[in-house]
Amino acid sequence: MEDPIRDFLHYLIVERGLADNTIQSYQRDLKDYQEYIEKVERIASWEKVTREMITRYLYTLKDKGRKPATLARHMASVRAFHRFLIREGIVSHDPSDQIGTPKAERRLPKILSTQEVERLLEGPDQETPTGLRDKAILEVLYATGIRVSELVHLNNEDMHLTMGFLRCLGKGNKERIVPLGGHAVRAVEVYLAEAKPRLVKKKDNEALFVNHRGQRLTRQGFWKILKRLALETGIHKPITPHTLRHSFATHLLENGADLRAVQEMLGHADISTTEIYTHVTKHRLKDVYATYHPRA
Question: Which residues participate in catalysis according to the annotation?
Fold first, then answer.
């Protein structure tokens, strides 16, 4: 039963062009699903899987304490896999058809206030090469709202500093152009002129942001940098590599930005994904009202 899963993952990579993290998520979900079908249901062929088996699998996950969002993701993986089996002629029926997807709890993203963002942006030690790099990274993330996975894949040629924009590849290898603010442009210019030459040994290094060894910075590497800077600048709320992206979108909408424009900059395929940030701004308005209105 492993071969069809392997073929499905290959299809996602080659034909759908999905990101590595998404592929790994599918792989984990389907490995878990396969183990359940083989060990619990004692089935050795995808053709023999039934609707009832999939339903019992979801209840098993629920009994293990999996959250609605996790259940929804597992079901999406199972459904996509069975549709692939149908299309490839491996099975004659789709047992996942008409099984309802568990409703995922829609949590409001955690964001930083503008004051906290300012503190974070001023945190790096700009007397050192790595500090200048960290300053440029934070300025770019907050100026553009790009994902950290997109940031670490940026090359020198993707930055168009004179014209004030960058080019990045998002999910599904979709290219988009995002404006860069003046602060971000200046921070990147200083980094390229004063810091990167001291970090990189090879002159033909195409990676924009590099680590202290001159190699392309990784997502994990940035995560460590962010946690350290948050601690040093006294930001005690939960912070992740996505926090600046959430803050970017929320602050734009709070200041009157058009929802469609924010959707385009974030690279969201569906505007409903962007709409979550309108709920964040409403939530923050209630907090302000409760704090400052004399009769709240």
Answer: 147, 171, 242, 245, 268, 277
